[in-house]
């Protein structure tokens, strides 16, 4: 789908993903889905809300994943 979105869990990352990495992945996803690199002013609020929601869901996903018998994030 979007080749610029990196895998954010071990072993792809040696350490847990940072909030900045999670937000960057969410931003890339919203850009890809919406077709906008930067939304017009009248779409900025909904664009930002989508990025925040996806970043939150991504954080929850990473926190809940078990990788090789261990939690991916604590």
SSE layout:
Layout: H1 19-34, H2 44-64, E1 66-67, E2 70-71
Helix pairs in contact: 1-2
Shape: elongated
Which value, in Å, is the CA radius of gyration?
Answer: 14 Å
Q: Please state the average pLDDT score.
A: 86
**Total helix count?**
2
Strand content: 5-15%
Based on helices, strands and strand pairing, what is the structural class?
mainly alpha
The neighbouring-strand order within the major sheet is 1-2
Order of helices and strands: HHEE
* N- and C-termini, Cα separation: 28 Å
Helix content: 40-55%
Largest sheet: 2 strands, antiparallel
Contiguous runs where pLDDT drops below 50 for at least 5 residues: none
Could you tell me the number of beta strands?
A: 2
Characterize this entry briefly:
This protein is mainly alpha-helical.
Please tell me about this protein's structure.
- The protein is mostly helical and 74 residues long.
- The protein is built from two helices and two strands.
- It has a two-stranded antiparallel sheet.
- The protein starts with 18 loop residues before the first helix and ends with a strand.
- The model has no long low-confidence stretch (mean pLDDT 86).
């Amino acid at each position: 789908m979007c080749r610029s979105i990196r895998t954010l869990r071990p072993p792809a990352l040696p350490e847990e993903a940072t909030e900045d990495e999670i937000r960057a992945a969410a931003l890339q996803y919203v850009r890809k889905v919406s077709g906008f690199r930067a939304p017009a002013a009248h779409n900025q609020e909904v664009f930002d809300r989508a990025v925040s929601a996806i970043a939150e869901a991504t954080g929850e996903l990473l926190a809940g994943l078990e990788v090789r018998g261990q939690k991916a994030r604590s």
